[in-house]
Amino acid sequence: MRIAAVETEQCRPEKCDNLCIRVCPVERTKPETIVIDKTTGKAKIDENLCIGCGICVNKCPFSAISVLNLPDEWSTTVVHKYPTSGFVLFWLPTPKKGSVLGIIGKNGAGKTTALKILSGELIPNLGSDNNATKSVVDFFRGKELQRYFSGLYSGNLRVAVKPQYLDQLRTQQTVKEYLDGKLGSPLIDEFSLSSVLSSRLDELSGGELQKVVIVKTIESEADAYFFDEPASFLDVKDRLIMGKAVRRLASLGKYVLVVEHDLVVLDYLADYITIVYGEPGAYGYVSNYYGVRNGINYMLLGYLPDINMRLRADQIVFYKHAAKAFIQSEEAFSWGAMSVSYDNSFKLTIQPGVAYNGKVVGILGENGVGKTTFIKQIHSVLNKEYYKGRKLTVSYKPQTLRPNFEGTVEELFNLRKEALEDEVFVTDVYEPLRIKKLSQKSVKELSGGELQRVAVTFNLAIPADIYLLDEPSAYLDVEERLAVSKAIRRTVENRNKVAFVIDHDLAMIDYVSDYLIVVDGVPGVQGNVHPPTSLKDGLNEFLRRVNITFRRDPETGRPRANKEDSFLDRQQKSVGEYFYESSIVEPSAEATN
Q1: Where is the 4Fe-4S ferredoxin-type domain (predicted)?
Q2: Model confidence pLDDT, tens digit, residues 459-479
Q3: Which of 69, 187, 519, 531 could be disulfide-bonded to 353 (CB atoms 3.0-4.6 Å)?
């Protein structure tokens, strides 16, 4: 079975003079192998005529073409094929009543498409022009999905969906109006939403809007619940509150599916894991479901043993960072005691601290206690003052990304040509974050994950002494988060500079950080920035404050949240080890490449 997919947003026939057609050897004898579609104006490849030589793939200057040879037996599992791009989704996740099914995989591999099909928003065409619901039910005859789709298409199965992107919900409607009929929900108090009930949706922060939408979704009267990246913009405490609320739905005998890239959250709330693997923009294949621990570990290790499938060449194993002592190196800069106030409604107290070259400082804390205010204050002070006789340069990636650049990604990076001429930067940052693949896209048309990758790469392309990155994991999948973490670490180490990274993904903070700054306080009222400390001590202090314990997985070294009041939870709390370092693997050279 052959797939020939063209990413229409990347394809630019007017800029390459139809290069794919000119280099195709089959086109000389069969001139309809590659054509320019009259509707889209983009290249379209006839998979029946294509011989899979890959010449057009290698010659395309915009990396728009994917030609893949797949096992013939996969042809019987085609669920949906997009006629415009050629993307194919093979099989579907199987919801299980009374259980939470977690879905994990690369962005662009079909997770959201699978959710649209299971929620009834998209009727799959089974690889043809057929969009009949009866055909879908017949296709899954003898499978659990037959009963599911029979209920869905007959109207006997009600669905509630928490969408991935929430910007379209930012209207002048108040929270109280939006939650009409659900104001008695105990989740309003659990998520601390009482104070924003009179606020308009377009006035809320990302975290507040996420919590409001989660409450409305959970309180909907439905039989199946779908959550697409519910942890985005939530702090650690709210992520685990969300996890408990989602698990309660499963205990009521509901179907619950969650797409999530935060490994800690997914591990905490899911009963089973399905991995969606493939080539982003070309195809996605839905695996069997696994137990939550094994499923996440299979994804990290890049191998599915039940079908002998290698997902990637390298393994992802977490380092022993948290076990390291607070080792000082060459001082980058220090800051004294400071305080920041906003209209007498919020006050941030900053304790003195020191940052060291070649190190990454993670910053953890609840939403609204001043993490972003702290790095903005550092940015402001460094812009105004000289440190030891010279002014330090700062590169800042903000939390909220508002693309205002008129042009393509390629034109944006033309502003940083010196970085693209640096082989180390290209190898450590530009290529791992797959920026070339986005080169012909307009910056203003990038998806959330694409924009985040571009923003992080552009931030690291700037020659600076201090790198400030606010929530670089937002909208990224697991592999992209770890690729970003590696890019930050390598940039800091190679250039002997310092980076401050704010994030709520504990797995990412654990992976990227050398030291940790904990920010605590009362959200929206006052905050306190503690001095940098060792990662282990910082994580222990932070987790003690939110009353959650973590252990490490013995196979991959990843952090895992203990279930509340479990034996391990009680044992670790009794000895004050909220972040337990036992059974940490030493990564091999291959695993950490």
Answers
A1: 41-70
A2: 999 999 999 999 999 889 888
A3: 531
